[in-house]
Amino acid sequence: MTSRRWAGRIRVWLAALFLVLALLPSGALAAPCDGAVYGTGGDGVWLRAAPSLDADRLVLLGEGTPFTLLEGPKRNGGDLFWARIEVDGQDGWMVAEYLLMNGSPPPMNTVPTTDSAPPPTVQPVAAPAGLQPGGWAQVTGTFPADGLRLRAAASPAETLLAILPEGSTLQLVEGPIVGTNGDPWYRVNAAGQDGWVDSIYLVATAAPPTAAPTPQPADLGPGGWAQVTGTYPADGLRLRTGASPTETLLQVLAEGSKVQIVGGPRLGDNGDLWYHVNADGTQGWVDGIYLVATSAPVVAAPVPATGAGAKLVKAALAQVGKKYAWSGVGPDVFDCSGLVWYAARAALGVDLPRIAADQAFAGVHVDRDQLAPGDLVFFANTYAPGITHVGVYIGGNRWVTAQDEQTGVVVLTLDIPYWKARYAGARRIT
Fold first, then answer.
1. 237 lies in a domain?
2. Most buried among 44, 103, 107, 197, using CB within 10 Å?
3. Are residues 25 and 71 in the same domain?
4. Residue 130 lies in a domain
5. Which of these three, 273, 294, 315, is where a domain ends?
6. Domain range for 164
7. What is the rounded distance in angstroms from the CA atom of residue 240 to the CA atom of residue 261?
8. Is the pLDDT of residue 26 over 50?
9. Residue 275 and residue 313 in one domain
10. Is residue 377 located within the same domain as residue 416?
11. CA-based torsion, 28, 30, 32, 33: positive or negative
12. How many structural domains does the chain have?
């Protein structure tokens, strides 16, 4: 590794160390003041209703999210410091370790003065040779970070757009300009996504060869059905947000799964033809070389619902198509347990507990082979250990749920591999 890359890393490590040391002593920053979420590695940090890891999660704040500090940091009976902040009108608490205040953070228990010493000046580093707008570059030297961060602007504190794997090829669009860390940054295009990267992790390279398009599988047209095949040893086909292997992964479709073609084909950046498909309610793009034409799946006719079960099913189905939002309880947005809570209250006048783990104790247990419309079906270990997801069974092996931000409220089948593997039981409240 070159001395230039070491110098760049040392500056980032020292900046992170300075931030941690500035926040460790007890006390409070002068509030209100502005800052941004920093140091989460692109994973973000939860805004919570109170200064505790057990408090309700309000919203996930992405790396670089701007905020206004209202109170803290302060310790709340444990090892963590907490700060009360405001984000887009939302008031809550976050772990203070991930605060980056605008300018140099003032010392704890003090009020910043106008004659405070200015932050040290960062000397810019020369850009690697051969990097010119319009040219191409390859990502290198990112270990152990496992990839280069693509950001919304030329700063490590800006919003994280994507992580470009080691060895990725990208095209330079604009630059260099000196980033906030003193390194030269370039605006680049990486598999169709535009953003800024730190050039100390780039080396000039030749333009990638244009791959000949893969022949289109026969009979794969919009409205038709296809089956996933030939994915071994990858154990499934990746469903992504765009026609590229570097786009965000939505889910893995098991070998043998059936999907409906929505659009395409489109030439992906790997030279293959990609298709826009619907996989049991989740839409995304897949590489067409792993698809073969097939017939539509046979779905069992739903068992007619009666009485209270029918009312609950009707109330839940009326929300299909509405958006998903964490902690949403209707009438316009829902999370999974919020949908069940809303439907039970509207249809039956029943006040269920608010979260899925508590709803799993309502009513009486029902065996899988005895499911009836209106039963609540539960799933475990989705984003955390234990009961974490719930929906309303509507008959015919189908259920309705607020699945996620990409799909909102949808109807799914219990045989989808992801949900089948996480099925945890059912309760009858009618």
1. yes
2. 197
3. yes
4. no
5. 294
6. 136-205
7. 14
8. no
9. no
10. yes
11. negative
12. 4
User: CB under 8 Å to 236, separation ≥6 — which residues?
Assistant: 228, 252, 253, 254, 255, 257
Residue with the bigger pLDDT between 359 and 168: it is 359
Q: What is the pLDDT at residue 305?
A: 52
In sequence order, the 6+-apart residues with CB closer than 8 A to the CB of 87 are 47, 59, 61, 65, 66, 67, 68
CATH number of the CATH domain containing 18: 2.30.30.40
Unique residue bearing structure tokens 């409205």: 223
**Cα dihedral 102→107→111→114 (10° resolution):** -60
CA atoms within 13 A on the CB side of 100: 18
In a domain, 85, yes or no: yes
- pLDDT tens across 194-216, in order? 999 999 999 999 988 765 555 55
Taking 50 as the threshold, does the pLDDT of residue 120 lie above it?
Answer: no
On whether the CB atoms of residues 401 and 336 are closer than 8 A, the answer is yes
Please check the confidence at residue 412 and state whether its pLDDT lies above 90: no
Q: Which residue has the higher pLDDT, 222 or 139?
A: 139
Tokens of 329: 């309880």
The answer to whether residue 116 sits within a structural domain is no
Helix (H, G, I), strand (E, B) or coil at 250: strand
Sequence-distant (≥ 6) Cβ neighbours of residue 331 within 8 angstroms: 342
DSSP 8-state code for residue 375: -
Burial class (CB in 10 A: 0-12, 13-18, 19+), 115: exposed
pLDDT at 218: 54
Main-chain phi, psi angles of 207, to 5 degrees: -60, 140
Q: Check whether residue 165 and residue 236 sit in a common domain.
A: no
Does one domain contain both 344 and 318? yes
CA dist., res. 167 & res. 418, Å (int): 31
What pTM, to 2 d.p., does this model score? 0.36
Per-chain mean pLDDT for the chain: 80
Let me know whether 151 and 53 are in one domain. no
Q: Are residues 182 and 281 in the same domain?
A: no
Which one, of 245, 324, 243, 248, lies nearest residue 281 by Cα? 324
